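Data deposition worksheet. Section B asks for the primary sequence of the deposited chain exactly as it was used as input, without tags or linkers unless they were present during the calculation. Section C holds the resulting structure in token form. Section D is free text for depositor observations; keep each observation to a single sentence. Incomplete worksheets are returned to the depositor.
Section A, Depositor: J.P.
Section B:
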Amino acid sequence: MSEHAAAAHPRLQHHFDSLEQQKDASVLGMWTFMVTEIMFFGGLFLVYAVYRVMYPESFAVASRELDIPLGLINTIVLIGSSFTMAMGVRSAAFGRRRGAALWLVLTALLGLVFLGVKVGEYQHKFEHHLVPGEGRFAPDHIPAEHHRGAEAYFSLYFAMTGLHATHMIIGIPILLVLAVSAYRGRFSRSYSTPVEMFGLYWHFVDIIWIFLFPLLYLIDPSRHH
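Section C:
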């Protein structure tokens, strides 16, 4: 690679010949990462499917302890964050530093709203002894014959929603760093790869919730009549 090529753009790393090649490598790396994440969550979904077949009635009874309106609010919040993230990617791609920073900060704020609602839901589970574990799982509203299946349900509930929330907790600081970088003019029409790659990550996290909401909150048809 010539010195001229290396100096072509300040964001071009020395081991790439062009920004296009650098972006292709980033896309490949991000999709590889997301495939591993899909396999990770896929394993949890498989365990969920097995236990739901084993304890269908208990899963339905346990799901009544979840607050559907709060789950729906969080679903709307995340769908909104996907929109703001997409706008942030678009603004960064057009070199609109203030617009990109604003949309990214809004995405982070929506993520914080989601986590705040989830903390409230977790608090409810602790107060009503719905936390799996010896001596801790003692629900008042679930019949004794459903305790085993209900405990399996809440084990999966905390594992799946907790892992999902962890991805958001990791993502929010990154969003704020990207927002600062955008405001400082780091991104332009020729270079906005970090924002684009993080956009893929954020949309993936949102899609996972779209699956979690019906699987965990909407599995008891009798509840909706």
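Section D:
The domain at 17-219 is CATH 1.20.120.80 (Four Helix Bundle (Hemerythrin (Met), subunit A)).
Helices lie at 3-6, 19-54, 56-63, 68-93, 97-127, 147-183, 193-217.
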